[in-house]
């Protein structure tokens, strides 16, 4: 279990208690209002990312090379969805950890990302071999 699942509610309860001790019920109302605003901002961001992703083909990204450059270890799946603006093509078996998704661009380059617990663990860029790199006759 992640420490954030315990720490964030405890911080909220502690902030409400401190506000109640210092300002009474108006302080508690202020803390609760701020907490609800914070949750609504995160919910709105999540819905906007998913709305944009629903309009694009599954597993498509504009540039796999640029996606590869922007990825960082430890970011969550929602962040990667925001970068690609598309839902990834599932490569791993359903409901099994780690989850593996692939995004491919128009040039057949692809980025395969592995998520464990919703966080990016590793990724790999795969680029198709160019015609000149295969050693064809007549290539300089």
Secondary structure topology:
Elements: H1 3-23, H2 25-54, H3 64-70, H4 77-84, E1 89-90, E2 99-104, E3 110-116, E4 119-126
Antiparallel strand pairs: 1-2, 2-3, 3-4
Describe what this molecule looks like in 3D.
The protein has two domains: 3-52, no CATH class; 57-129, Beta-lactamase Inhibitory Protein, Chain:B, domain 1 (2-Layer Sandwich), CATH 3.30.1450. Helix content is 47%, strand content 16%. The chain has helices spanning 3-23, 25-54, 64-70, 77-84; strands at 89-90, 99-104, 110-116, 119-126. A four-stranded antiparallel β-sheet has the order 1-2-3-4, with helices on one face.
SSE series: HHHHEEEE
Most strands sheet: 4 strands, antiparallel
- Percentage of residues in DSSP E strands: 15-25%
Report the strand count: 4
Order of neighbouring strands in the sheet with most strands: 1-2-3-4
| Proportion of helical residues | 40-55%
Count of DSSP-assigned helices:
4
What is the residue-averaged pLDDT?
Answer: 89
Computed Rg? 22 Å
CATH second-level architecture of the largest domain: 2-Layer Sandwich
Keywords:
140 residues; alpha+beta; Beta-lactamase Inhibitory Protein, Chain:B, domain 1; 2 domains; 4-stranded antiparallel β-sheet; 4 helices
Short description:
By secondary structure, this protein is an alpha+beta fold. The chain has helices at residues 3-23, 25-54, 64-70, 77-84, and strands spanning 89-90, 99-104, 110-116, 119-126.
């Amino acid at each position: 279990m992640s420490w954030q699942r315990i720490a964030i509610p405890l911080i909220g309860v502690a902030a409400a208690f401190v506000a109640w001790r210092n300002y009474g019920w108006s302080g508690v109302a202020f803390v609760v209002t701020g907490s609800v605003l914070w949750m609504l901002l995160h919910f709105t961001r999540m819905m906007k990312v998913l709305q944009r992703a629903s309009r694009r083909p599954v597993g498509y990204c504009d540039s796999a090379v640029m996606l590869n450059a922007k990825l960082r270890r430890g970011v969550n799946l929602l962040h990667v969805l925001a970068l690609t603006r598309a839902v990834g093509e599932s490569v791993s078996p359903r409901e099994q950890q780690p989850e593996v998704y692939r995004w491919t661009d128009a040039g057949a380059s692809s980025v395969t990302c592995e998520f464990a617990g919703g966080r990016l663990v590793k990724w790999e860029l795969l680029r198709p071999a160019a015609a000149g790199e295969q050693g064809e006759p007549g290539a300089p």
